[in-house]
Amino acid sequence: MKPTLVILAAGMASRYGSMKQIEGFGPGGETIMDYSIFDAIRTGFDKVVFIIREEFAENFKAIFEPRLEGRIETAYVYQDLTDFSGDYKIPADRKKPWGTAHAVLSAKEAVTEPFAVINADDFYGLDAFQKAADFLTKECREDKYAVIGYDLLRTLSAYGTVNRGVCSVDKNGNLITVRERINISRKEGKIVSDDGLEPKEFHDNTSVSMNFWCFHPSYFEYTEQMFTAFLQDRGQDPKAEFFIPVVADRFIKEGGQIKVLRTDATWFGVTYKEDAPIVRENLQALITKNEYPEKLWDVKEKA
């Protein structure tokens, strides 16, 4: 069974200030998602599921359907605040959905096979997709998931601090925990965080999660049960969010295994407006090295 790619594209993009998910960065107007889908197709994925806000559906379909028709199966699901909440009374001042784990849960009816989850606005690189595809087709099972691990140094921005899921990894390459650290930047040759937590300084090759996960479809039932408990515990907090690392930590504590798939692939993303020219330069450099065609979809890569 070939794996599915799930793309999280329902975010507000508050720091960036616009709908960066559908902004064109490639020479042919390609979005960052286009490059991820291109890599997914050539590593064996045969379906892509976009998780979006319903009001953006028309724009999304107008962009992607002409490009992807005949290349890969597509599906669209909408993350809504009330999804999976049952009879729970949601606070009136709660406006945005519940976070990344809740977003993935939105794809429950659209995904029945092992699947990868990525952010819409991150470029992950071919090697990351190859490692994910290999894991999903050969190793993934109900008690064994995976996460792609990047060197922290490769994921920093020159234009501000970043938040990263810092991974603790055991001697067998399995995830012990992933902890969200905020306000990370490079200062005086050192990578530091001023979030008040320890450690304050990180090695360049500290493994971090860039939200590229590999899951068995059992994820959905497991997460739905967790979300019900989350609402009872934190649902009245207007800022509470139900993140994938929360699910991952619980999964590990209950005996599950999450393999860290280390990659040396190039990663880059658009957290700030100032990142956009760098993204374009990086894409052009990869095109110059013939890692991608000049006009991405001129090459007929069929699933």
If you had to describe this structure to a student in words, what would you say it looks like?
Strands 1, 2, 3, 4, 6, 7, 8, 9, 10, 11 and 12 form an eleven-stranded mixed β-sheet that branches. The chain has a two-stranded antiparallel ribbon with strand order 5-13. The protein is globular and about 50 Å long. Mean pLDDT is 88; it is low at 12-18. The protein is α/β, with parallel strands linked by helices and 303 residues long. The longest helix has 17 residues, at 218-234. The protein has a domain at 4-142 and 209-240 and 265-298: Spore Coat Polysaccharide Biosynthesis Protein SpsA, Chain A (Alpha-Beta Complex), CATH 3.90.550. It starts with a strand and ends in a 15-residue tail after the last helix. The chain is built from seven helices and 13 strands.
Determine the structural class based on helices, strands and strand pairing.
alpha/beta
- Residue share in β-strands: 25-35%
Report the mean per-residue pLDDT as an integer: 88
Q: What name does the CATH topology of the domain at 4-142 and 209-240 and 265-298 carry?
A: Spore Coat Polysaccharide Biosynthesis Protein SpsA, Chain A
Largest sheet: 11 strands, mixed
Overall shape: globular
Radius of gyration: 19 Å
CATH superfamily of the domain at 4-142 and 209-240 and 265-298: Spore Coat Polysaccharide Biosynthesis Protein SpsA, Chain A
Quick summary:
The protein has 303 residues and is of the alpha/beta class. It has helices at residues 32-42, 57-68, 100-105, 126-138, 218-234, 244-253, 276-288; strands at residues 4-8, 47-52, 73-78, 115-119, 122-123, 144-151, 162-169, 175-187, 190-193, 201-202, 207-215, 257-262, 268-269.
